Amino acid sequence: MPLEMEAVVRAFDLRVEGDGAGATWTGHVGDSDVTAVHIGMGPALTRQATRRLLDTAAPGHRRVDHVMIAGICGGLHPELAVGTLVNPEVVVDHTSGATYRHTPPGAEPLVGKLVTTEGVNLDVGLSRRFFDEGCYAVDMETSAVAEVCEAHGCDWSVYRCIGDRYFDGLLDARLVALSHPDGSADVAAVKRLLEEEPDLLPKLQQLSHDSTRAARLAAEAAVRGCRALDG
User: Fold this and answer.
1) pLDDT tens digits, residue range 126-140?
2) Quick count: other Cβ atoms within 10 Å of Cβ 111?
3) Is the pLDDT of residue 22 over 70?
């Protein structure tokens, strides 16, 4: 989402190149050249963006040694607070059942699983089942990154921080519908909803605060991972 990209750009101190859909952000961390791209929401857009990133025949291609995905996720573990960094041992694709072993740079401990779904999951029963199967968090992109990277023989790692938890009751279908496919907010729809239901404002403010903080913490963790590549 745009707020996740903003957090990455700030944490890595990147500068923009180009504009529109083809924009990239570049910079340096330690011994690494860094390029950031916006992928949008969901596995399909993520696969497309990751394939473009690794396409050696693309004009202006830059060799990629390691792909990192950083941003927010939904919490499934009742003892993990909003703002907690989830560093999974395994990433699971819910649709296919495929699993990917996570081997990030650095020495931060690996715990539990991260499950990737096709869309925002609002099914309480399914969320509970995910947790029973050892999943600590859920997102919509990471397994797609792992899938494409492993097919191309490229290392990858994930940096996800809990931005909301289904059992806190902040997120519902009305709020999910306020986002465009790229993760940006439909401002007009937000205004209309708040005019109809002004009591939703505190919930939206809390979600915005928590998501922004989680995105920042995830981006900072990605910077630490990038520095660990120097070792």
Assistant:
1) 999 999 999 999 999
2) 13
3) no
- Going by C-alpha positions, the residue among 52, 31, 41 that lies closest to residue 3 is 41
Q: What is the pLDDT of residues 191-200, one digit of tens each?
A: 888 888 898 8
Helix (H) / strand (E) containing 164: strand 155-165
Rounded Cα distance between 16 and 2, Å, is 14
Mean pLDDT over the full length of the chain: 91
Structural tokens at position 194:
């708040």
How many residues would you count in the chain? 231
Q: What is the CATH number of domain 2-228?
A: 3.40.50.1580
Angle at which helix 43-54 crosses helix 142-151, to 10 degrees, equals: 30
Query: By the 8 A CB rule, do 27 and 13 touch?
Result: yes
- What is the reported pTM? 0.89
HEC assignment per residue over 116-145: ECCCCCCCHHHHHHHHHCCEEEEECCHHHH
